[in-house]
Structure formats: C-alpha cells, structure tokens
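HUMAN:
Sorry, I am quite new to this. Are you able to go through these amino acid letters and fold codes? The numbers rather puzzle me.
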Amino acid sequence: MKKVLYVLNDCMRKFSYERTEGLSRAFRAMEEPVDLYVVRSDGYSEFAPEHNCGEYNIFRLPDYSEFDGILLDINSVFTTDNDAYASRGTLYAAEAAAASGRPVISMANDMEGFYYVGIDNYSAMQTVIRHLHREMGLTDFWFVMGPADNYENLERTRGLRDYCKENGLPCGEDRFYAESFIIECGIHAFRALFDRHGGALPQAVICANDHIALGICHAAEKAGYQVPRDFLLTGFDNTDVSSYLSPSITTVDQVSWSLGDACADVLRRIWQGERVPRRVCTPTQLILRESTGHASDQQDLKKQIMEYIGRNSSSTDFSYRLSAMQYQLPGCRSVEEMGRALVQCLSTLKCGGVSLVLDSSLFENSSALPFDDSARQTKDAAGDLPIEGYSDSMELVFQWEAGKEPRTVRKRVGRTLRVRGQGEQGENYLFTPIHFKEYTVGCLVFHDCLDLIRIKGVSSVVNTLTMALRNYFAGRRLKYMNLLLSGISRKDALTGLYNRLGYHDLAYPLFRELSRRGGRLGILFLDMDHLKQVNDTFGHAAGDAAIRSISNAILHSIPADAIPVRYGGDEFLVLLPCAQEQRLREILDAVSADLPLEAERLGAPDMLDISAGCVLSDPEEAKTLDQYVELADSLMYAEKNAKRAGEKVRA
C-alpha cells in the first residue's frame, strides 16, 4: 500500500477538483493500491492575514516523511511581503517536503529541487497572442497580469514580452498592469490603463486569467464600452468562468484532468525505478469564443452547460441540507449534536465518513477558565491555542462512518494526525482546518468525499461549523463569567484556591469524564501541622499568613490542568488527571520545597509543615469521588498521627 500526500490551496477553483479527481482515479487504476491524503487550505491574498494564518497552518499537520510521494499544489498561495502568513505556509510545505527524502512533484509551479508537472505557461500564452497577431492581424495590446512573483504569471508575462520583441510589437511598461488573479485586478487595470493612454483603447486586452477578464468587462461596460464591439479580450485557465459570461471569453483550457493523471504516472515510474524527466508538461487547448469575435463552439457550449446542470442538480439537495445545518447548529447544546447535524448534511453526497478533531483545551477552558492568581482574573482562553502547528492535546471527538451510527469518541491523537486506510482499491482523505482566526482549533477529516471539492462545498461546511463551535465555546465561557459576576464565586477569598462550591462544580464533572474514558484522577489531601499552636503563639494574622504560604506553594507546584481547593480551614485538596502515583509524590515534594520560601516571603513562622495523603482513582472500581477523598483524608491522618507519635518518643 502506497500513501501520497497532496498539499492543496484550493480557493474553490474548478480545476482543483479536476486535478484531485484525476489523481484519485489514476491511483485507483494502479495495480498496487494508493491512499491519497489531501491537506487542503482555503487561503487567499485578499483574506484577512489572521484567517490565512489559521488556514495555512494545516500544512504543518502531516509528517511528510511518512508518505511515499508528495504533491505540492500551492502556486496560488501568494508570497508577497504583505501576506507573511502565506509566505510562511508555503515555505513550510516546501521545506518539509524537501526534508522528507521522498519524491516531490510541484504542480503548476516550477520549484528548484522538485519534479514539475504542469502546463507550459510560456508557450500557452504565446499561442494566445500568436492567434491574435497572425490570424487576426492585431498589433495593439494591453496586458493585464497577476501577482508579480507568481510562477505561472511570470511565465505568461515572459511569453508575451518575448513574442512582442521577436515580432516588433509594442510592449512597453505603459501597456502592462500587474496586481492579482481576482476580478478587482481587471477593474483596476482598465481604469488605470484607460487613463494612462488618454482614453484610447487597444485592439485587444490579454489577461492572465478569466477572473481578470471578467473585471475588464465590468469596468469597460461601466465606461460605456463593450467587448468585442470596441476591443477584443482574452483570459486564461478558468474555463468555468469564461464559458458562462456574455460575451463568452476566449481562453486557454489547462485540461486539468490530465495533470492529475500525469502526476500519478510520474510517481508510478519513480516507484518502479525508472528515470523520469524533471519537467513534464501537460497539454493545453486554446478555446475561441465571442470575446474575440468568434462564434462559440456549440459542442463546447453544450458540454459546459451540461456540466453546469450536472453540478447544480447533484448539489441542490446538498444546498438544502447545508441550509438546514446552518439553521440547526446555533441551537446545538453539544459538539455531538453539531456532529450529527453535519452528518445529515453530508449524507446527500458520496461520503465514506467524517471525523472531527479538536484541541481538548477548548473543553477545559470553557468549563473552568485559567486563573491568574497574581492578577486575580481569568486569562485569555485563546492564549492556550497554538498559532503554528498543532498541540499534543488534539482529540478525536466525533466520528461517523457511512452505514454506521455517529459516535462521540474523545480519544487523544496528538499533534500529528494519521489515518490508516483499509480498502483494497485505495482510499482518499480530505483534511481541512478549523481555526478561530489565527488560533488553531482542530480539523475536519472527510473520507471518500471529494464531491465536496467538486461542488465547492468544503468552505461552506467548515465555515458554518467553525462559527457554531466558536459561539458554543464562547457561550460556555460567558456562562462561567456570569456566575463569577453574579457573586457566586468559586474562589476562596484568602488563598485564591477554589472553595467548596468550586470543588463541587469542577471536581465531580472531571471525575465522571475521566471514569468514562478510563482515565485516573489523582487526589492529594494536604493538612497543615500545628495551626492551633501558630494561632496561639503568634496570633491569627500569622495563622492566615501560614495558610497563604501553603496555598501559594501549591499554586507554584501544580500543572495547569490541576484543580487546587481549600477544602477546610487548614485542609487542602489537589486533583488532576494523572496516570501514576509518582506524579502526585513529585507535586508533594515540590510543595514541601517551596513552603519555606513562601513562609519567609509572607512573614509566617518557620515552623510550618504539612501532612499528606495520596490516592489514585481506579476506573474499574465502583467508588465515588467522596470515597476516594475520604481515603486520602485517612492516609493524611495516618501520617499526622505517625508524626505525633514520633514527637512523643523524642520528648
């Protein structure tokens, strides 16, 4: 069984599905099964930088060295200085791929050290201007290009400049405009070039893609001009955009299905030990349409219309289910309910299953916000979520497989997620990020569900679920804050530890959750020795200082997921998820070591000492939390009595 990683920046492009489906189809046809893992982002240069940061972080999810081949389809991730997040995401994917030692194919972007599979952008763009020049006799052009540091754009621009120079056509900088690959580029370009040339139009405008051409059409119509009456227009490679416009746009079809087939063939030949050329170019096709004065090919138009109808007919039910999910999610009272609403939506598609992975700190922070003892206020919960990479606290929280009932899991999976295919014909998995702006929250994993890319539904599903999750966890945090603000505080005023109310609200749910998952709860029962003697000898103020000394030593010594409680006057509890009693002993030693320092700092007597009892719960036993606490209490008293007996012997 081979495993191939496909790193994809989608941007909901039509050819993203064609490439992905081409790969999947080719891998299924191989003699040895190949599993395809698609790690997909939806970043774009015009999105907020924080959003892109969260999107491109998905590139850090896989262990690149675990795969037999790597495909990078990240040419649309712009690397300009004003989008540093995109640059970091692109560089990480390229560096991790290079360091993996595996064969790497860069799709549509010729990157040093990798195989290149894609079209010959240089020659394809020369095909466009050659037709306009030689077949139609045009000599006066404007050129509207994409981002200046994008590989495809650079090659297309170079092809135009070289052709013009070789054929004596004007191609000065006054005829070029470069910005981005989106509609606004065409709008801005028409206005700028129109003003630059004093209102004189060229014979034709050549655009780096069809989205730009659409922007040119809009701006020209607003200025009172029409294509092709006043000038001709060409696009490039977004054939789903160009075919439905009026006029339809002359363009270059990348025949993207063939790119997926070619990548699979290159990997197959490498695996078989064959020598493969570093560059493999796939075919293109110049499609002449109304924007250059040609009548649209009726067969081509019929094909495009049938594809359009097919896509919409197959996605209509999904759209209705998506709307239903968007309506249901705000009312969901648990992540499990959200998962079931998601399954109802996906059940309309060919989908083998879905897994929801979330950072477990979300659940912890929503039920008990971290507390900064020195500032006496809660910390920002988002501060515990990573910005780069994934944390070790990632959990598989919900899973559904086709033909089975959805189920809640809560299984720790760690920072690097893996899926193991079991099919004999090769499986495909689609990973897409879940994030709150730049903060990494988790990911959705779709099994055998490439239809989501075809109908451009991935972003809709993920964005809807993300908004619901964000509101859900924010609501839980708000509920907790309202409890604090209403005066029902769970903190002890003297020590800052949780009081009995806090113990009740936090310890019991934690015990139940750990027991359900087969985990253990560590219980450390501490009691101050000689408090009465301190009060009688030094006064109650000294006794309070002694109690604060112990509580501060506890806070300094426990991990972030522990629950510290002032259980009584001089009695303290520490509860935490724990696998070994040795961990409790280490905490007790740390408290004892820190106690003299705290006593000196707070002016407490130097006679402070504590007795302790340590207990580890057993999920196989039928004991309650209260019974475990009583056991820890009895062990503490046994230690205290032993100390007293020793003191009598010495006396």
The two ends are 76 Å apart (CA to CA). Residues 64 and 96 are 6 Å apart (CA to CA). The first strand starts at residue 2 and ends at 9.
